[in-house]
Every structure is written in structure tokens, then in C-alpha cells.
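cron nightly-structures :: item 1 of 1
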Amino acid sequence: MRIESITEDFGAIVSDVALNELSDQDFQQIEQAWFDYAVLVFPRQNLSNEDHFAFTRRFGRLEKGLPHINMKLRPNIGNTDIKGNVLPPEHVGRVFNIGNSLWHSDSSYKRVGAKASLLAAHSVPNEGGETEWADMRAGYDALSTDMKRFLADKVAVHSYAFSHSWHYGLLVVPEEGLRQLPPVEHPLVTVHPVSKRQVLFVGRHASHIVGQDFVSSRKLLRELTTEAARPPRTIGHRWEVGDIVMWDNRCVLHRARATPPNQPRKMVRSTVAGDEPANEWAIND
């Protein structure tokens, strides 16, 4: 197995290994590389869905999907229907996925955010459709001393209704599901449980800062996200069929780049639930 870093301590490409035939020793090496680099790219694995989810389960319990999600409106992570046909640009599922073009951490609108996300490419466009990641460990490090001091005790509200209302998200998850997704609060500065590095926890699901003016604190959150997610703190990946990438939602933001209107992009995502034992979003199987 080869592990080649993309930058000094953010992102790595893992090759010469078959994820569906991992020894315990190889898994431990991959897990440590994930802790070190936060984003791991496994080129051309071509995993079946069964093997994809089996690999995911080695990192923890799977996370439940959104409540009452209407799969006819949002059929998959991408722009195709269940038969692989490209959806028209005006389709609700296509418009819903526009939200993924903004920097975010998966499930931060839940009481316990996601631990890891794994995305596998089943169909990719000839151009566009890349995924990018931003290192929020480095994002925190880049803050001024005064800003670190200001944010030290601040808490942000994260809300599905806030971040999805503008792109059909309230249709994909109707009112009965929204009642299970009330706004939640997360510290703006967290500590990664393994590396112990401080992390700037922001992204599009964060609506405002508790105890601060909504408009001005929302503006600050946008500025913090934009500034933190700049080079050299970002990496990107141009997908090939069979690739699978995993990232750590506890310290990484990500976004998808636009896909040409008539080219298919079909991805399969699995999500590892946060490690809290009482996490109501974890699947206990």
C-alpha cells in the first residue's frame, strides 16, 4: 500500500490496496492516515455498494438518512434518476443538489454531526463535477489572535431549514420530517478528538451566532467560511469512475463543483455517524 500526501498534512492518495480485501493491519494504517490527513483518495477501487458500505462500517455506525425524504424528488447524490438518465435542470432533485456547491460539513444541522463521509463515483462527466475540501484545522490556525479570542466561547446555530429553504430542500424533506430536524447549536471552535487540534466549525448550515445580532453574525460566519476555505488550505479531486474518497466532517468542509447540464454525475455516499453513544442518528445494527 502506498500513501502519498497531497499537501504536507492535508489530503493523501492511497493506492496499491483493495478496500474489499483489507487486513486488520492495512485498515489500521488507513485509519491513521485518515486521522493525519483528514481526506483520503482511493483511485479506481470500483467497489460494489455492498463492499463500499462494509468498508464504511469499519469506521463506526452508519448514519440514518433524512427523515421522510422523498426519493422521487431527490433520487441520489448526483444529477441522474434511478435508471441513470440525466435529470432536467429544473428538476427538484437537481436544484436541491445546488446546495452542495457551498462549503459545508455533512449533518452539522443534526445534534450530533457526521464523523465521516465516503463518496464513490459511478458515473462522471467529461468536465466539471469535481469535489473540493477545505482544512478547518488550518483555517483556525490562520485566524488572528483577536479573532481566536472572540470565537473561543461562541456558539453557532445550525439549521436544515435555514440552509435548504432556498433550493427546494423543504420539498425534499416535508414538514413532518422538519420537525425531527430542529435547529441545533455547535461551538464555533471545537477540538478534534484524536489529533487534539482546534478546528473552526463553520459552513453553510450555520445560520448565526447565539447572543449576537443575526445579520451581523451571519455576515461574520460567511466571511469566516470564505476566508478559511482558501488556498493553500484547499484541495480538489477530478473524479474517475471507481474512485472513492473519504473525509473527516469534524475538521473538513467540502463542496461540489458544477456539472455540465447534459452530462451524468452519479455518486453513492455513505456516512459514518458521530461517535456519541446516545447518538439518535446512528444505526445500531
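cron nightly-structures :: done
The first helix runs from residue 24 to 37.
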